[in-house]
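so im writing up the methods section and need the Peptidase S8/S53 domain-containing protein record in one place, dumping it here so i stop losing it
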Amino acid sequence: MTHMNYRTIVGLAVAMGLMTGVGLPVVAGGAVQKDLSSDRKIVVFNDDVSLSERDAALGDLVQNRIKRLTRALSADVLEGVDAGRLRELSQNPSVKRIDDDVTVYALERVERLARGGTQVNAAAAQVLPWGVDRIDAELVWPTGNSADPIKVGVIDTGISLSHPDLAANIKGTYNAIKPRRSANDDNGHGSHVAGIIAALDNGVGVVGGAKQANLYAIKVLNSSGSGYLSDIIEGIDVAIANNLNVINMSLGTTADVQSFHDAVIRANNAGITIVAAAGNNGGAVNYPGAYAEVIGVSATDSTNIIASWSSRGPQVDLAAPGVSIYSNYKGTGYATLSGTSMASPHVAAAAALLMNRAIRSEEDENANGKWDPSEVRARLQATATDLGAAGADSFYGAGLVNVFAAVQ
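--- predicted struct ---
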């Protein structure tokens, strides 16, 4: 397992991180939660502005800087600056714009059974979760396609680094909030997501849809499942720098922030297939799931009906199982959770399995011999099982993802 930095994956160290955001964001269960901070701002500088010029532009506001972004986005995060000073700073010729550093949340329903005392620390014999079965992932495995060596980034609360169902598949880690610390999961959400994608086929616990995909834990959310947008942006840029193939973001905010969209565009342009949860408020799709470059995923139950709380709208691209999903949890535990957070990784697993199959000439719209994000989306949508009204709709998008059909 390696620690990921902005330049490459180096050494054998383990790192950690967290993440955040703002607005009046919606929590997993649909309730409005107070922001972590209402006065954090992302000051975006022009690309040609040097670090020293950034300091000069800030002047005495350097003392308000709590984070510096230097890789793809030239920006400083400030806290506690009054509106007048921000207006003054926005007029500086070195400054491109000032964005809100909004709070972003894990998109999981409040019915977290493990927290109610049902967490299992000693796994029983391995089961095939109903969601993995429903997308027909297990039918792909006999062909020898288990998604190795596709690299999947889990931008979330981290992953349990010692979990027997996950550890062998974790190939890199990064903590965007505290880069010198571990990316170990102190919440459980990220481990649950990771297990849906790539839990090991080892005879215990569960097995993931892309059971041999290489997992990369990018910790951007804290132990409460929330974090700042600036850390998510850093996590996305780390994924780009380390040439990941797929990233899953089971998180969201109601705020459409330019710096967030720009990071998503960078990842898409780098060839990364981005999959994200639609949201759990029963209304409009959250960001990043609503961005055009992202595969937005709604949640269905075991009867293939959209969950009442699943967000919906024209930005929904696909549907996937998201109700009562059994998967890994923090430590060595297991839990049953619900949410579009659980639906999204089923599609991420499907993308990984598809990308491990050579692209055919008729699928290769960009004629470059590899799967580009738009081609992955098109294939998964073309082979999805239509649900609801005939054709694409705002509940299910193109339909329920079916990876066995996709890889044919």
